[in-house]
Design brief:
51% helix, disordered C terminus, Serine Threonine Protein Phosphatase 5, Tetratricopeptide repeat, mainly alpha, 338 residues
């Protein structure tokens, strides 16, 4: 009985966890303390939430994936290119006459005649009275030998712009090249009246007047824009080009007396008096326009003598309204007809 009682008591102690020292086989624990330790354990910090793995991040970047669809993103904003002139989306509007004119000039300078002609016509289709398009196409046809077509365009330009001296000058020169000298003089006279101080227009009308033997009128025009010796010399050159040797000698002699230092006049005069043919231009066919490549060039003169422009011996630029570089003894101040 005694043994049975002890056994029952030991079983109770083992179940209830009471500390019963001295009883072998019974664990020794104190209530509220962990087994095998008499110290209170520190509370461990809460574990941090694990972030997405590298694989999850990579998967989220793939369009259409579940991770990508579930990821909350900001809505994309399309940049406004409407005010950016170099953007393809910049609203340029419909093509203009100026655009076609620019392309025509580029093609004309580059020698692409067919494309230039097409661009000039496109510009005129949008703006029929565009002066630069009319004159550009007229000069192109003039250079290509289509004198009739060129004359129509010059006439159209002068009619649309009756106060534009450049249009009247070009029309007058085209009349002269086609042999219509009275009409040429009338048109050039209008250009001179609009810009009386421009030497180019005075030179051109003087050359045409010399063609029809109106020498005094030609000299009067030259005397308006040149010094006396230069005007006399220019008349001598124009007459020599036409084979009027006696009259040429008269004007060259006068030029030499007015300005003894005018060496071109002395040289040409010596050749004419000595019976040696002077270098001349083919004045029976007036030169045609050179187009848009002649801006800023200096006028070339004869192969042996340099001709003066003014008493300061300064060369004039090659204006847009002039034509081929003069040959022979043509002075710089007397550009040929164009």
């Amino acid at each position: 009985m005694k043994l049975q009682s002890l056994t029952s008591w030991a079983l109770v102690v083992a179940v209830t966890g009471c500390a019963v020292p001295g009883i072998p086989g019974v664990p020794y624990r104190m209530a509220g303390k962990p087994q095998g330790s008499t110290q209170i354990a520190k509370k461990a910090p809460p574990a941090k939430a694990a972030g997405p793995s590298w694989t999850e991040k990579f998967t989220a970047m793939i369009p259409g994936s579940k991770s990508s669809a579930s990821k909350k993103t900001m809505p994309s904003v399309t940049p406004d290119r409407s005010n950016d002139p170099i953007s393809i989306g910049y609203p340029t509007g419909p093509p203009t006459a100026e655009l076609f004119l620019s392309m025509a000039h580029l093609s004309d300078r580059g020698g692409n005649i067919d494309h230039a002609r097409s661009m000039y016509r496109q510009a005129l289709a949008l703006q029929s009275d565009n002066l630069e398009a009319l004159l550009g196409l007229a000069r192109l046809e003039d250079r290509e030998g289509r004198l009739g077509e060129a004359l129509k365009l010059y006439q159209q330009a002068a009619a649309a712009h009756p106060q534009n001296a450049k249009a009247l000058n070009d029309l007058g020169l085209c009349y002269a090249r086609s042999g219509q000298f009275p009409a040429s003089v009338r048109s050039l006279d209008q250009a001179v009246r609009l810009q009386p101080e421009k030497a180019l227009y005075r030179n051109n009308i003087a050359k045409v007047l010399t063609q029809v033997d109106r020498v005094d009128e030609a000299l009067a025009h030259l005397s308006k824009v040149h010094q006396p010796a230069i005007a006399q010399y220019n008349m001598g050159v124009l007459l020599e080009q036409r084979g009027k040797t006696v009259q040429a000698i008269h004007f060259l002699t006068a030029a030499s007396h007015i300005d003894p230092q005018l060496q071109p006049a002395h040289a040409l005069l010596a050749e004419l008096r000595g019976g040696v043919p002077a270098a001349t231009t083919n004045d029976s066919v007036l030169p045609t326009p050179m187009g848009h490549t002649n801006h800023g060039q200096s006028m070339a003169v004869g192969p042996r003598y340099s001709s003066p422009t003014t008493s300061q011996q300064q060369a004039q630029p090659f204006p847009a309204e002039t034509a081929q570089v003069p040959q022979g003894y043509s002075p710089v101040t007397l550009p040929p007809i164009r």
